[in-house]
Write a structure and sequence with these properties.
It is globular and about 90 Å long. It is of the alpha/beta class. The strands form three sheets. An eight-stranded mixed sheet has the order 7-14-13-9-10-11-12-8. About 5% of the residues have low confidence.
Length: about 750
């Protein structure tokens, strides 16, 4: 059974057209299990019914015509119950409903299972038999297992638009909406740009075309161009490579000359598909056949076929090679990537970008934090959207709702543009009040600091509006190099940061890599990277790295005295003791080196980040060891809720408004105040309008956030009272779910005229 299961899933995943994939699915299941009928019904939530989409056994004329209501018949019952239904005689069941069009009168035995993806019923998969019997446990288990794997293929197909378009002509011009996760608030309009995009059959999205003659001509021309390229490559390496390598080019030539291949591709074009999609369909079928062969030599030929076909595809699409991609990007670009990284953003001027889309990641992944720091709207977790669907398309990015509109209509663009204008008006109003102090309406003074270090531009930011730097991420310079930066290189960077405003405190976090911040030259392979070797754990295991960084910080601080050092990922008091020992060692070394210069070196204040739940229960002990605390709400939320904040599948579970997270934050500030240790919140929660209100109510008064959010948060602080905030906190602490908390907070923001900070429009 497991062999059949794998084969069916692989075959279905290779068929680019959903309708044909489902048709193949039903016939494959019918043959594998040996039943009389197999059918697939897909849910249409707009019309509240299940539509028969494919069958092998029922009347094929009913496909696309028979719709069964969500509360009707056995199909509706399966959707309602969200579990399999195994019936000896379907026609005797009280929920059985007869649909004459499908002609199922001869069938009695019935087995159906829901197709579910992320708690949503996408459809129903059924088996039917003429004789009365109960399907076996193995048959039921097989169908359930298969439905879970097919669910993802259906979601992919829906995203690509195969279910959304009745008219296949000019599909590129049709508007599509894709839902992701809000990553950074704001609105962006531009053209999708995928850096380092590679043309490949695997990533190509199938498209229809009514112009058959044109597509056939495009295919034939691409084959001729590819033939010339292969001949040139073959001639270039002749006599320089072994004969078996040279033979690969002969295989390429034979494939290009094969009339059967051309006839099959052109046959698909005549069925209404464009040249690229027709090539994809035929070649992926051949590739699968070669991979299924027992002969290892023939299995390897699948790679050759794929490589050659990618070259043909590149020529069909008008690029010089599969790897070609212009490095320049025009104005008003929406950066689209599998995962947006700091090095990637460093390649582009922020003046040219007006939005970010990251296929991987969630609301508090590193990519989302980067976007917020740069003031760019971002949507994360579009895990079901292929990059090729977004590349070169007009896109609207809504960072408030997490929605991306592809190829928007003119009316939608006009409406969106109005919202963009309103957002700019609100930003202008906030900027007008930038010079005013951050004091609540009932005279509670709040200190606002800046998170820095995400990019070279951020390191040179004017910190006029902040009271210093609450978090300087030192790891980014490490990530942008091909080796560990030297002590002198680090010292130069840190000195520039400390001198940006020598009268304000600058808190530098020691190296915090691992998890979603890998070093290319220091790879760490772990099954659970967020629970692994990262932060202070890594640097204590490598004191040579830690000491060089601390020496660089201390040398940069000579004559200034505004440095503070913060330790990340602390789990125990012993880690603090060991870190302080090394810091003191570095301090004595640098002091001795400058003893004859007359320069002054101060011992900086040392603090720890509270982000591992274990430290919540060690605050009294830690309070005796350090000068300050800083709450990292991002990781604290991640670890308290056991949710990988980069995993889009569980992104809905990651929420800093979770009652458990709020209770932990309240406990932390109460303990810190009891032991008279200054405490700052430097996680992303501090930069959210709702988050700052709840934190104020808890008793926090020092916050650090990205510079883009600072003025917005100052606006919020000046618009509220601590008394009102405490009433809100008392109310939300009794909530059971994060969405209840968020709803109450957003209602409160609306009531005081700050709704425009958490949604599009004033």
């Amino acid at each position: 059974m497991i062999t059949s299961l794998k084969r069916i899933v692989q075959e279905v995943s290779k068929i680019p057209v959903l309708e044909e994939a489902l048709k193949h699915l039903t016939s494959s299941i019918k043959g594998a299990i040996g039943v009389d009928s197999c059918s697939v019904y897909l849910a249409n939530y707009e019309k509240q019914h299940f539509m028969l989409m494919a069958t092998d056994g029922l009347d094929s004329g009913a496909v696309g015509k028979v719709a069964i209501g969500f509360s009707e018949g056995l199909i509706g019952l399966i959707g309602q119950r969200e579990e399999p239904l195994n019936i000896l005689d379907a026609q005797s069941h009280p929920r059985y409903k007869h649909y004459p069009e499908v002609k199922e009168e001869k069938y009695h035995a019935f087995l159906g299972t829901p197709i579910i993806h992320q708690r949503k019923v996408l459809g129903v998969l059924t088996l039917q038999q003429k004789k009365k019997r109960r399907f076996s446990e193995d048959e039921e288990a097989f169908l359930v297992t298969l439905s879970t794997q097919i669910a993802l293929e259906i979601v992919h197909a829906e995203t690509r638009g195969f279910l959304s378009f009745v008219d296949d002509n000019n599909r590129d011009k049709w508007q599509r909406k894709i839902s992701g996760v809000p990553g950074s608030a704001g609105l962006g309009m531009g053209i999708g740009f995928v850096p380092h995009f590679k043309v490949s059959l695997a990533s190509h999205v199938a498209k229809r075309s009514a112009n058959k003659e044109l597509e056939i001509a495009r295919y034939r021309e691409a084959v001729n161009i590819t033939r010339s390229q292969v001949e040139e490559l073959s001639n270039r390496v002749e006599g320089q490579v072994p004969s078996d390598v040279q033979a690969i080019f002969q295989i390429y030539s034979h494939l290009l000359d094969a009339n059967s291949l051309g006839h099959e591709v052109e046959g698909r074009i005549k069925d209404g598909w464009d040249a690229a999609s027709s090539l994809k369909y035929i070649i992926e079928n051949y590739i699968q056949q070669f991979r299924n062969m027992s002969d290892p030599y023939m299995q390897e030929r699948a790679v050759d076929i794929e490589d050659l076909s990618n070259r043909i595809l590149a020529n069909i699409l008008g690029t010089d090679s599969p790897d070609q991609r212009p490095l320049d990007v025009n104005q008003n670009a929406i950066l689209v990537a599998e995962e947006v990284t700091a090095p990637m953003l460093a390649e582009f001027s922020t003046m040219k970008l007006c939005g970010i889309i990251s296929v991987r990641g969630s609301s508090n992944s590193h990519a989302a934090i980067l976007a917020r720091a740069m003031g760019l709207p971002a949507v994360m977790g579009l895990s079901d959207a292929p990059l090729s669907l977004l590349d070169g398309k007009k896109l609207l990015v809504d960072g408030y709702s997490g929605e991306v509109i592809v190829s928007p209509s003119e009316s939608v663009r006009q409406e969106f543009n109005i919202l963009v204008t309103e957002e700019q008006e609100l930003s202008d109003r906030i900027l007008e009040k930038a010079h005013l102090p951050s004091v609540t309406q009932d005279d509670y003074t709040v200190s606002l600091f800046i998170n820095a270090g995400l990019s070279a531009e951020m390191e040179n930011t004017n910190f006029t509006h902040g009271e210093g730097v609450g978090l300087y991420r030192t790891e980014v310079p490490f990530m942008l190099r091909e080796r560990f930066p030297s002590e002198q290189e680090q010292m130069t960077l840190y000195r520039e940061m400390l001198e940006s405003d020598p009268h304000k405190p600058i808190t530098m976090r020691t190296l915090d890599v691992g998890g979603d911040k890998p070093l290319p030259y220091f790879p760490i392979s772990e099954e659970n990277p967020f629970l692994g070797w990262r932060g202070v754990r890594l640097t204590l295991d490598h004191p040579e790295i830690f000491l060089v960084q601390i020496r660089a910080m201390l040398r940069a601080n000579i004559g200034l005295g505004n440095l503070q050092i913060m330790l990340p990922m602390v789990t125990s008091v012993s880690e603090v003791n060991e870190s302080k020992r090394l810091i003191k060692q570095a301090y004595h070394e640098v002091s001795e080196e400058i003893s004859d210069t007359g320069k002054i070196l101060e011992m900086p204040k040392i603090g720890v980040m509270l982000e591992v739940p274990a430290v919540i229960y060690q605050i009294p002990q830690l309070a005796k060891k350090v000068d300050f605390f800083s709450v990292g709400s991002n990781d604290l939320t991640q670890y308290l809720l056991a949710v990988d904040r980069n995993n889009a599948r569980v992104s809905g579970l990651y929420d800093s408004y979770h009652p458990a997270v709020l209770a932990a934050l309240l406990s932390i500030v109460e303990q810190a105040n009891e032991h008279n240790v200054p405490i700052t919140v430097c996680g992303e929660l501090a930069g959210e309008p709702g988050g700052i209100i709840l934190l104020l109510a808890m008793g926090y008064s020092k916050f650090s956030m990205n510079s883009h959010n600072l003025l917005k948060i100052k606006w919020v602080v000046r618009s509220v009272t601590v008394k009102q905030s405490k009433l809100l906190l008392d109310s939300v602490l009794s909530c059971d779910d994060p969405w209840e908390v968020r709803e109450q907070v957003n209602q409160y923001l609306e009531s005081i005229g700050l709704g425009g900070l958490v949604r599009a429009g004033i």
